From TrEMBL:
Keywords: Cell membrane, Lipoprotein, Membrane, Palmitate, Signal. InterPro entries: Bact_solute-bd_prot1, SBP. Pfam families: SBP_bac_1. PROSITE patterns: PROKAR_LIPOPROTEIN (PS51257). The keyword Ion transport does not apply. This is Extracellular solute-binding protein. Gene3D superfamilies: Periplasmic binding protein-like II (3.40.190.10).
Length: 476
């Protein structure tokens, strides 16, 4: 009995020593953190959940006196969190968001200029146009740390489907897309179709329709020369009629009508379609899901060697901002300089090619070879276009007012309505939408005393050619 009690006492004593040691270690860790400078980083980019922890761990090892506190925000609720932080003038030191534009942040004096981080010699290391006015810069100052450089859309192809059916060529023209699509449907006895895309993803349909329309009508979407919107162009009409023709001839999967981009991608990997239209992030998603038997090409054109273009323009969520009220600028600057040297490599490791620098300039082992193909196609299709914000920053107010009061439908929804038969008069529907959109645009301009129609007009714009500082100066 005495031995038993003695054993129990020893156990309690040992446990007490362990608890005391743990408390001591915890107290020491708390004390160590208290001695560090903490900078707060809010991230609302999905991919950032992967690469930021890796980068932060490495940075903190190099700078043990600095702690980076990462907060990964929920995309759906992040706008409310930013609204509250702005109202309280309590933004984190570093943050990413698409809830507000660069122009809005600068107008509200909420963001720190980054000229020290991006002197001219450093800017030259980035893709040309990244630091254009309205992209990472405004009023001659850099405000956005560029991480990405926008995006565009592609046609992905399932190599296994093509190989199984003995098809050697990937279609480059509309005519070839229809012919190959019919061949795939016939040879597979209807188990596979030629093309699929997420018809229920309105943003995708809207963007792809405009991109394809620019081959025949470069003013499709917005006419930079005249300063108005055009959705009833030949390019739009023929692009939408193409999709209807593909559907009627079994070259376009009818599942397109019912699926969003996620489901369309799943049907593509399952071999139910040979071709998928989707964005630059698709390659990364296919690879992450274990499907690597694919390739990527530009969207088909009506004419051989036809040319399409999309705007080269950074969105607010393509980079990082620094709060104007940060109390730790020196530490933030150190972290940003560290990111300059390391973030792009980590992003490429994940398979996202559209970093703000040229992917080919980064020495890294890529997860799949098509990363370079996606980057190259983007470079060929994305063109620097006129930006009214450069001429008059107040034009952003007109754009925001237009977004709130624009018609509910768009060219993408008209396309889907035409495929289902709900839209019978295609030209009439596009013309009505164009008229309604321009009416809302004109109203927004007239209600803003600081803006005129001329701020949106660039008569020296040449389609498919980059619009640079030289062209802006010509207008003065």
């Amino acid at each position: 009995m005495v031995k038993k009690c003695f054993f129990i006492m020893i156990c309690y004593l040992f446990l007490g020593i362990l608890l005391l040691g743990c408390q001591s270690d915890s107290s020491k860790a708390d004390k160590d953190d208290a001695d560090k400078t903490t900078i707060k980083l809010w991230n609302n980019v999905a991919a950032g959940r992967s690469y930021f922890p890796i980068l932060i761990e490495k940075f903190e090892k190099e700078h043990p006196d600095i702690k980076v506190e990462l907060n990964n925000l929920n995309v759906e609720s992040s706008e409310a969190e930013y609204q509250a932080a702005i109202s309280d003038r309590n933004l984190p030191d570093i943050f990413s968001t698409d809830a507000f534009t660069l122009n809005e942040f600068v107008d509200l004096d909420l963001v720190h200029e980054l000229n020290e981080v991006f002197p001219k010699d450093v800017q030259s290391q980035y893709t040309e146009g990244v630091f254009d006015e309205g992209n990472a810069s405004l009023n001659g100052n850099v405000y956005l740390f560029p991480v990405y450089k926008g995006g565009t859309y592609y046609m992905f192809y399932n190599k296994q489907v093509l190989n199984d059916l003995g098809i050697d060529e990937v279609p480059k023209t509309w005519k070839e897309l229809k012919e190959v699509g019919i061949e795939i449907y016939d040879q597979s006895n209807g188990s596979s179709y030629g093309l699929i895309f997420g018809g229920q993803s309105g943003w995708l349909v809207r963007a792809v329709t405009q991109l394809m329309a620019t081959e025949l009508s470069p003013e499709s979407g917005y006419d930079y020369a005249n300063g108005d919107y055009k959705y009833d162009t030949q390019g739009y009409v023929e692009t939408i009629k193409l999709m209807k023709d593909l559907l009627d001839s079994n070259a376009l999967s009818p599942s397109t009508m019912e699926t969003d981009s996620t489901v369309a991608r799943e049907l593509f990997t399952a071999g139910q379609a040979a071709f998928l239209i989707d964005g630059n992030w698709t390659g990364q998603l296919l690879h992450e899901n274990g499907f690597d038997d694919w390739g990527v090409v530009p969207l088909p054109t009506k004419n051989p060697n036809g040319q399409q273009y999309g705007e080269f323009r950074l969105g607010s969520n393509d980079g990082l901002y620094v709060s104007k009220d940060t109390e730790h600028w020196d530490e933030v600057k150190l972290f940003l300089e560290f990111l300059q040297e390391n973030i792009y490599r980590e992003i490429l490791k994940d398979g996202e090619p559209l970093i703000a620098k040229e992917a080919s300039d980064i020495n890294v082992e890529l997860p799949f070879s098509e990363v370079n193909d996606i980057a190259q196609i983007f470079s060929e299709m994305s063109v620097r276009v006129p930006n009214p914000v450069v001429v008059n920053p107040k034009t952003q107010e007109v754009r925001l007012a237009l977004q709130k009061n624009a018609p509910d439908n768009d060219a993408g929804s008209i396309l889907m309505g035409y495929l289902t038969g709900q839209v019978e008069d295609l030209q009439g529907a596009l013309t009505d939408f164009t008229d309604d959109y321009n009416a809302a645009f004109t109203k927004a301009i007239q209600e803003n005393e600081n803006v005129s129609r001329e701020d949106f007009q660039f008569p020296n714009w040449v389609p498919y050619e980059p619009y640079t500082e030289k062209e802006y100066q010509e207008l003065k």
